Amino acid sequence: MLTHLDSQGRAHMVDVTDKAVTFREAVAEARVRMLPQTLQMIVDGAHPKGDVFAVARIAGIQAAKKTSDLIPLCHPLMLTGVKVELSAEGVDTVHILARCKLSGQTGVEMEALTAASVAALTIYDMCKAVDRGMTIETVRLLEKLGGKSGHFKAEQA
């Protein structure tokens, strides 16, 4: 059932007034593939714009907090925790893991996905002058806890 459509098929914001407040958590990931020398520059801290991972981490956290401003039917949420982790994976990939938490009436999947996506876009923005061929890949929900639909865990890629 598509919960964002009313009986006439029109988009609307889901009313969560009567839903119980429960602990909810979501984890999402993204990968940015790039030239090996671009990743090495990031890891070595040699990028002329500064610490790429630090800036992408802050961008991801800020994005999670602004998700309802970006996605029209998302509820504004009082997040109680946002964590964005970035790490080198192999010789040509940055792996981004975003975790969002709250106690509330609706889930935080979109916040985690937004955090991972914006962190990836920030890496692209900071590094595009040296590597325009970067690709953002595998943006997906890894795990969701809490709420009526229960626990979801993605299968290994």
Describe the secondary structure blueprint for this structure.
Layout: E1 22-33, H1 36-43, H2 52-65, H3 67-70, E2 81-89, E3 93-104, H4 109-127, E4 135-145, E5 152-153
Antiparallel strand pairs: 1-3, 1-4, 2-3, 4-5
Question: How would you describe the overall organization of this protein?
Answer:
The protein is α+β, with helices and mostly antiparallel strands and 157 residues long. It has a single domain, classed as 2-Layer Sandwich (Alpha-Beta Plaits), CATH 3.30.70.640. Helices cover 29% and strands 29% of the residues. A hairpin with a 6-residue loop joins strand 4 and strand 5 (152-153). Helix 2 (52-65) packs antiparallel against helix 4 (109-127). The longest helix is centred in the C-terminal third of the chain and has 19 residues, at 109-127. It is elongated and about 50 Å long. The mean pLDDT is 91.
List descriptors:
single chain, alpha+beta, five-stranded antiparallel sheet, elongated, Alpha-Beta Plaits, EC 4.6.1.17, lyase
| DSSP E strands, number | 5
Overall pLDDT level: 91
Radius of gyration: 17 Å
Rounded to the nearest angstrom, the distance between the terminal CA atoms is 27 Å
Helix tally equals: 4
In CATH, the homologous superfamily goes by the name Molybdopterin cofactor biosynthesis C (MoaC) domain
CATH architecture: 2-Layer Sandwich
User: Which overall shape is indicated by the principal axes computed on the Cα atoms?
Assistant: elongated
Q: In this structure, how is the largest beta sheet organized?
A: 5 strands, antiparallel
InterPro entries: MoaC (IPR023045), MoaC_bact/euk (IPR047594), MoaC_sf (IPR036522), MoCo_biosynth_MoaA/MoaC (IPR050105), Mopterin_CF_biosynth-C_dom (IPR002820)
Subunit structure: Homohexamer; trimer of dimers.
Protein name: Cyclic pyranopterin monophosphate synthase
Catalytic activity: (8S)-3',8-cyclo-7,8-dihydroguanosine 5'-triphosphate = cyclic pyranopterin phosphate + diphosphate
